[in-house]
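Progress report, Aim 2. The chain analyzed during this reporting quarter is listed below.
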Amino acid sequence: MEELIRTNDMVMISFVEALLKDAGIEHLVVDQNMSVMEGSLGVLPRRILVLAEEADAARQLLTDAGIGGELRPETI
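Predicted structure tokens for the chain:
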């Protein structure tokens, strides 16, 4: 899996999830349960992951939606 976005902005996470779901791109939001350990302060970022074979399509989708600046650098 490849990381697309790392943020603690819950609105951004919801927006990205909606875009990916509507496009039929499987995704996973990880580190959501870390808030229990941090005291629910929202300090630790959540990560949005997609399958490697869908990463290019997901990146293009988010860029087209105007949030390409939020994308994590691509890994080699």
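The chain has one domain: 2-70. The two ends are 13 Å apart (CA to CA). These observations will guide the mutagenesis work planned for the next reporting period.
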